[in-house]
C-alpha cells in the first residue's frame, strides 16, 4: 500500500493531474510514510498472527486494557503484556481472558501461536531467584511462536546439575542463560553448546553484585565464543532476540 | 574417536580384559575426555575445514608460528590469527604465506573457505575510527565461511548515510554494528532491520567515552528489539557469533 | 539605584562630608551591594514581565503559597513553580489560580507571557516515558515567552518517526532533545538540524541505564556538532537555556 | 542541485522517458541523496566560505594533506585542522601555508573569514593548564567567523580575577568556560552573566579529578541557569556550538 | 551408592544384559548422577549431623516451614535458616522450636552440634552497627560445630580496645573481622595475628561509604598478609569458610 | 589511675609480692588498659565539661534515653545527640529537657558550654537545601564551646551574596563550607579567606550529583589551598574538627 | 599599594581632578584590583618572608627558572618549587642554588625560614612507598616555617610500630597521615591523638586500589573524629593546610 | 630476647637498680618493642627457616641486593623476592645465586624449604594469560614450605578440562583459583571441592574487564561456599594465605 501512494503520485504527475512542484513537496514532506521504510508496519503486514506487545511498566490497568482492546478490535489475535503485577493482571482479567504468569509478571490475551520456529529455545538459570527474568523470556518466546525448554537452577557452583542436562543444551537452536551474582552460567553453557547464547544478567544478589552490574560485566567478559549480552533483567529482549534467531529460516 | 574409547572400555569389560573396578576408576577419572563432551574437539572433528583460531595478543611471533605450524601439519587447512601487529605479521610471513589485514590486525594462513552460510552478514560502523574493530569482525566471519558486506562510516549523526544503504541492511541474515562514542548505531539499525543485530562498542573516543563504557552502556539500553552486545572492541567475538547464526540451518 | 549609592559616596567625598578613609572602608565592605553586579536583580529590573521561578522540590505547599503571594504582591505577573506533585498543586489551587501540568509536575500562576522569542523551540523525546521531563522543559520555555513545538516519541529505534517531522526540526531556533535509555536522539537530531541542540538525559530505564548515566554519557559523546548536555531529568534547565538562546536578539 | 534530481525524475516521468516503476525504485533507493535532507551538503552549498574541518587525531600528515588538498581544489577557501601536533603541523607546512596554534594543537590553511557573528564569544579558563582546550575552542570559533575574547586563568579560587573582567563577560553573546579540577568556573560565570554558558571540563588534574570526570560532574550539577556541558577536553565542540549560537540571526 | 550404579551398568555389560551401545548412552546421559561428583550430596552422606542450610531471603515463612519440615523428616537433626526477620521467625516458631537470633536475623531448628573444630573462631567487629553481620557469621559457625569468641566494637579508631583482647586473637584458629566505614579492622588484626583473617565489609555508613564499597576496597588492599575478603554483609559466607578452615584436620 | 596500676605492679615486684614472671604476664595481657593510651578516657578526664556525644542513628529513643541518663548520672553536664528525628526528640523530651534543632536533626540535654575557643567558626552553605547539614555542624560546634557565625545560601552561582559577607569570612578562625550540587563553595571561600576551610559535600541534588559524589569530587579537587574534605553530609565531623582547630591554643 | 589606588581615585574626586562619573566607571571596572580583596597579594604583602610557590608540573625548566628569577628579583627570599623531577632540578641548579629533595620531587631556592609555628607537625606514612608524598608535605611545611617530625612506615598492619611513637603523635599540633592501599592510618592516628589529622591518600598500590580511590574512600569514612582529607597524592596541599593550622595564633 | 628486656627491667626494679618511675617511663615508651607483640619478629624467632620476603616492586636491584645480603648475613637461609623483572633478576644474579621464575616475576636465594604443610595446595588458572599471577602464588607457597599442584588453563568455558582434574582438586588442603575475564573459575571449583578456595582475580582482559574489576566482582558474588577473594593480581597474598591455612596444624 505504501508503494501505491508513490505510484499514485507518479501517475498523477504522468497524467498531469499534479504539478512537479507539488509532487516534490509531497515527496519531501512524507518520504517515509510514503516510501514505507517503517519496519514494524511493513513486517506486521506480512507476518500475520504475530502478537502485538504492550510494555506494561508505568501504564495503568485501564491504559493497558484500552490499548489491548484496540489491538484486538483491529484483528490482532494475541496480545502480549510484559511487566504487569498481579493486581494489574486481575484488573485486566475482568474484561479479557488473560493468561497470566505471575513469576514472570507477564501475560497474554488470546491463543498462543503454534510453535513455528526452526528448533527449540532453551532458557536456563543459575539459581531459583533468576526464575522471574527467565519466565519473562520464556513466555515472550512462546508467545512469538517458539518451543521452549526450561532448565532452572543449574548454576555453576554445582556444575553437575548443568551437566545432567546436556541433551537439551546440545540440541537447542538458541540458548538464553539467565544469571545474577557471579553471572558465570553463560560462559559454562557457551563452552559446552555450539548455539548462540544470549546472556541475561539479573539484579539478584546484594553488596558487590551492584544491582546486576557484576553479572553484566562477567558476561561481557565471557571467554566462551558465541555469547552476547542484553540489559540487566531484560528477559523480554532475550526472548524476542531468541525468537528472531529461531525464525531466521522463515526470512525471505 | 572419543566414543571409541568408551566403547573400548566397555568392550574390555565385556570381554573380561578389564575388571569392573578398573573401569570405574577410568570412567571416573576421565569422564569428559572419554565421553566426549568437549565441544571444540567434537565439532571440529565433524565440521572439517573450519579454521583453527589463534589469539595473537601476548604471544611472540615465534610462538604463533609454532602453533600454526603444528595445526597445519595436523591437516588444518586455514589458520586464523587475531590481534597481531604488522611486525609480528611480517615475522610470520617469513615462513608462511599470511594474508594480513593491517587495519583489523588479523590474518590467516591458507585459503579462505567458500562461503556456505545461510545469507549475508553486514558489518557496519559509525565512524572511520571504528573500522579496525569492524575488520576484525569481517575477516573473522569470512574466514569462518560467510559472505560479508561492509558499510563503513554510516553513523547516526548523519543518518542519511545509513538510509542510503537500506538494501543490504534489510536483507542481511545478521548485522554487526560497530560504534564508539555515543554507540547509537545498533539502535537505529535494529529499528530498521529485522535480523539479529550484534552490537560492538569500541574504545574510540576520549573523555566521557570512558574507553568505550559509554558506548557499551548505550548499546545495552537499546530500545530496539533484537540487539545484543559483546565486549568493547571484541570484533572477533561478534564475527564468530554472526557466523554461528548464519550457519544455523547447517546444525543437525 | 545601586549606582546611586556609589555616586552618593563619591559626592560625599567630593563635598567633604565623608573622609577618604571612611569612603575606602565603605567601598571595601560592600562593593557588590553597592556596585550592583548581582545579575538577577539587575536584569529583572530591566526585563519586566519575566516570571519569577519557584523550585518546588522540598518545599511545603504552604511555603510555596507564601513565596508566590509575596511575589505577586510585589507586582510580579507570572509565577512559575517546578517540581510540584498533584497534591501540592491542589493545595496551591485553593488560594491561587494555578495552571497545572501534571505530567511535567509544573505549574504557573498568572497569564502566560506573549511569545516574544526569535523563533520556535522544538521539544522532542525518544519515548513516551520521557514526556514528563519534556513537559517541564516545554512549560518552562512557554512561561518564559517562547513558542514551543512538541515532537514526542520520535526515538532512534524507529527513525522514520523522526524523519516524518523534518520541517519543525529544520526550522527551529533551538531544539531540546529528551531521551533516556541509549540517549541517542540528540545525535540523530543534531546531525539533521543546524540549530543548537540541548540534550536532556532522563532517568527512564532500568539495569544498565544506571538511573540516566548511560544516556548522559551517550549524549556527552555525541558525534553531532552543536549538541550540549544538561543534568539528568533537568527539563527546567533545558527550557531556561533554550529561552535564553531564543531571546538573544533581544540582548542589548 | 539535490532538488533538481527529484525534478528531473519527475520530469522524466511526466515526459514518459522514465517508467513509474523505475522512478519508484530510484526514489526508494536513494531518497536522501535525492531529496536532500543531508544537512552538511545542503548547508555547505548555501553558506559558501564556511571552512571545512578535518579531525586530525589518528590521521597521518599525508592523509591530512591529501584531504586538505582535495578540499582546496574543490574551491574551499579555509580548511580547519584539529588535534594535530607540532610534527604533523610541520609536515603539512611543507606543502601548504598552515597557520598553526601549538597550544591548541589546531591550525588552518587559507584566510580566516571575516567575523560575521551577532556578537562576541568569550572563552575563559580556570587555570593556565586549561589553555590548550580553550585555544582549540577559540581558534575553532574564529575560523567559523566569530570575534573571540580570551580571559585565561580567572578560576574561582581567586574570584577577584574574574570580577576584574566583568565587562566582556556581561556583554558576550555566548561564553565558553573551560575548567578542570573542581570545574566551578561555569557556575560562577553563569551566575554573573545572562548569556548561554558552554561548560568544557578538562582532563587537567590528578587523583580524584578522575581524568576530568570530577569537573564534568560539577558542571552538570551547576546551580546557575543557562549552563550546558560538552565532553571533556572538547574545545572544538564548544567553539562550534558557540559559533552556531552567535550566528542564529543569520538563520533564515 | 553412586558408585553402585556405575558398577551395575558395567556388571550388566559384563554379563551381556546391556549392550555396549546402551551403556554408552546411559553413561553419556547421566555421568554426574552416576559417577557421583556432586559434592553436596556426597559429603552430606559422609558427614552426618551437619546442618542443612536454608537461605531465607525471598522465601515466605510457609515455604521455609515446608523445606525445613522435609529436611527434618529425612532425618536431618539441625536446620539453619539465614536472613529471616522477626515476623517470619515468629511464624516458623508456631510449628517448630526455632532458636532465633534477632540481631543476626538467623535461627536454627534442632540442637546445636557439639563443637568439634580444631580450635576457636574469633568474630570481631569495628563498631556496634556491624554486629548483625557478625552474629550471622557467629551463629553460622556455631551451627556448623565451632567454638566462637565474640569481640565486638574493637574498631581501629580506638585501637586500645583491640589490644586489650590480644589473647583470643593470638590463639584463634581463624578470625572473622567485620567492619564498615573505613574497613580497617582486618588490616590491624591481620598484622597482629598469624591465623587466616576473613574480612567481611558491611554496608554500614553513609555518603562515601557507597553501601560498603569503601570498606570492601579497603579490605582488598590490606597490607597485612593472610587476609581475604567475602561479599559485603556476607556473614554467612564468612562463618561457613571459617568453619571449613577450622575443620581441616577432619578432612581425609 | 591507669598509671597507678603499673606503679602497683612494679611496687609489688619491688616488694617481692609478685614474681617477675607474673608481672610479665600481667603487663603483656593488659598493656593498654594499664598504660592508659586510650585517648578518649584520658582527655575526658582532663577537660571536664566537654559534652559526651551520642550518635542517634539506628538507636531507639529508649536506648538514647538510657545512655543519656547514665551519662548525666556520672556527672556529665551536657549530652549532645546527633541524627535524631522529631519523633525521637519528642520521646526523649518526655524525660529530659532536650534543646532540639529540627533542621539539623540534632539536640542536647543540659546547658551549652560558654564559648572558649580561640576565635569564631563560620558555617556557610551554597543553598538552602544544605542547611540541615550546616545546622548539624553549627550545633555540634556550639555544644563543644565555640562561637558560630552562620552564612547560609551564599553559593557560587550568585557570588555577590558571598562577597557581601567578607568580614566574617576574613576574620574566622576556621570555616565550614557546606555545599551540594557542584560543590564549588569551598573553592571560592578558600580563595578569599586564609583560615582552614573544612568542606562538607551534601547529598542534595539529583541525577549526576550521584548522591553527593559530584560535590565530594569537586571539593577534593579544589584549587584553593587550605581546603580539606569530610564525608558527604558529615556535619558532625566538620563541627568537631572545627572545634578542635578553634581550641588548639588550649592544647598543652 | 592597592589601597593607594582607591585613595588616589577618591583624592582625585575630592580635588575635582576626576569626575564622579569617571570614578564610578573606574571603581566598577576594577573593583578587586583596586580594593585589594585578593588574599594572596594582600597577605603576602603583610607576612614578609613567606615563600612564593611554583607548581612545577607541566612547566619546562626554563619557564621555572624565569618565574623564580622574577620572584627573587622582586625581593622574594625563598622560592618553593613542587613536582619537578631530577632532570629539571639539575637544569634549575645551573643558575640557582636549589636545595632539591628527590624523593618528594620538591625543592627550594633561598634559605629555609626559621620555624615560627605554634607547635610541631608530624608527617607519618603507612609504608615506605608513601614517602614521596610525605616528603612533598614535609618540605612544604618546612618551607612555610614549621618544625616537622617524620614517622615513616608506621602502617596499621604492624600497629606496634605506630604505638612505639606515641610521644610525637600525642604532642603534635597537627598530624599529616599519608597512606595508600587500605588507607587506614589516619583512622588509627585520629583515634589516638587529639590534634587535627589531615589524611592524604596515595596512589600507591595496584588492582583494587584504583589509583588511590580505595584509600581516599577509606579515609573519608574514618570513624575517628578530627580527620579530614585532601586529594590523592596531594602532599603540598596537606603541608600548606598543616602550616596554616600551625600558625593560627599568628592570625590577627 | 624481647621478653628478656621486660624481665631485665623488672629485675632491675626488684633489685632496686631502677626506680619505679623510670620503669614506668620505659614501659610506656616502648611497650611493643619490649613486650613483644610484634607478630613478625616473634614468630620468625620461633619458626626458624621461614624465608624472609622482599617486595621487589619500586626497588632498584642494588637495594634488593643490599636488603637480601643483610638478611643472609643475619643467618636467614632463604630470601624470597617478588615482582622483579628479568633485568633486575640478572643484576641480582651477579652476586647471589637466584632461582628466578620469569613468568611469575619472582625468585629466591637459598634452598627451598622441605614441604612441611598439612596437605597439598592446588593452584589453578582459567587461561594461559593468568599463569604469571599463578606462578607468583605457587612459588610463594613453595618457598613457604608447601607442596603445590599446578592446574593451568582449566577455565569454565571448557569445563571438561577442569573435570578431568578432579582428583587433585578433591584432595587439596587449599585451592588457589586464578582467573581474569569473567572470573568464574572459583565458583565452579568451590562448588566441586570442599576445601577453602582463595580466588585471585587477574587484570587479564580488555574493555569491560576494567583491569580485573569484572573478575573481582564476579568472585565476590560467588554462589559457592568456601570462597574468599584477594586483590587483583595478588598472587603473593594468595600463596601466603594458602600456606598459612596449610600449616594450621603446626600452630600451637
Which terms would index this structure?
12 helices, 44% helix, alpha/beta, homooctamer
Question: What's a concise summary of this model?
Answer:
8 copies of one chain form a homooctamer. With 252 residues, chain A is α/β, with parallel strands linked by helices.
Q: How would you describe this structure to a colleague?
A:
The structure is a homooctamer of 252-residue chains. The longest helix of chain A is centred in the first third of the chain and has 14 residues, at 2-15. The first copy, chain A, has 12 helices and 9 strands. Mean pLDDT of chain A is 85; it is low at 28-49. Chain A has 252 residues and is of the alpha/beta class. Chain A has helices at residues 2-15, 20-29, 31-35, 39-46, 61-73, 86-93, 131-143, 159-163, 166-171, 185-192, 213-220, 235-246, and strands at 52-55, 79-82, 98-101, 106-109, 120-125, 147-151, 174-179, 197-201, 227-229. Chain A is globular. Chains A and B meet through strand 9 and helix 12 of A and strand 9 and helix 12 of B.
Amino acid at each position: 500500500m505504501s508503494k501505491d501512494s508513490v505510484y499514485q503520485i507518479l501517475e498523477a504527475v504522468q497524467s498531469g493531474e499534479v504539478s512537479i512542484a507539488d509532487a516534490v513537496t509531497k515527496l519531501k514532506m512524507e518520504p517515509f510514510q510514503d516510501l514505507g521504510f517503517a519496519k514494524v508496519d511493513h513486517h506486521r503486514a506480512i507476518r500475520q498472527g504475530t502478537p502485538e506487545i504492550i510494555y506494561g511498566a508505568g501504564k495503568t490497568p485501564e491504559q493497558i486494557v484500552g490499548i489491548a482492546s484496540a489491538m484486538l478490535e483491529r484483528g490482532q489475535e494475541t496480545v502480549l503484556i510484559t511487566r504487569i503485577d498481579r493486581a494489574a493482571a486481575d484488573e485486566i482479567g475482568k474484561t479479557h481472558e488473560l493468561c497470566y504468569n505471575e513469576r514472570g509478571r507477564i501475560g497474554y490475551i488470546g491463543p498462543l501461536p503454534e510453535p513455528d520456529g526452526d528448533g527449540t529455545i532453551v532458557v536456563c538459570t543459575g539459581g531459583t531467584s533468576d526464575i522471574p527474568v527467565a519466565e519473562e523470556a520464556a513466555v515472550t518466546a512462546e508467545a512469538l511462536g517458539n518451543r521452549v525448554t526450561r532448565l532452572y537452577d543449574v548454576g555453576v557452583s554445582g556444575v553437575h546439575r548443568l551437566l545432567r542436562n546436556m541433551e537439551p543444551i546440545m540440541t537447542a537452536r538458541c540458548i538464553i542463560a539467565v544469571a545474577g551474582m557471579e553471572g558465570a552460567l553463560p560462559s559454562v553453557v557457551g563452552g559446552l553448546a555450539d548455539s548462540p547464547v544470549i546472556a541475561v544478567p539479573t539484579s539478584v544478589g546484594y553488596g558487590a553484585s551492584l544491582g546486576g552490574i557484576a553479572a553484566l560485566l562477567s558476561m561481557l567478559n565471557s571467554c566462551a565464543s558465541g555469547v552476547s549480552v542484553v540489559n540487566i533483567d531484560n528477559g523480554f529482549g532475550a526472548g524476542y532476540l531468541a525468537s528472531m534467531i529461531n525464525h531466521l529460516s522463515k526470512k525471505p
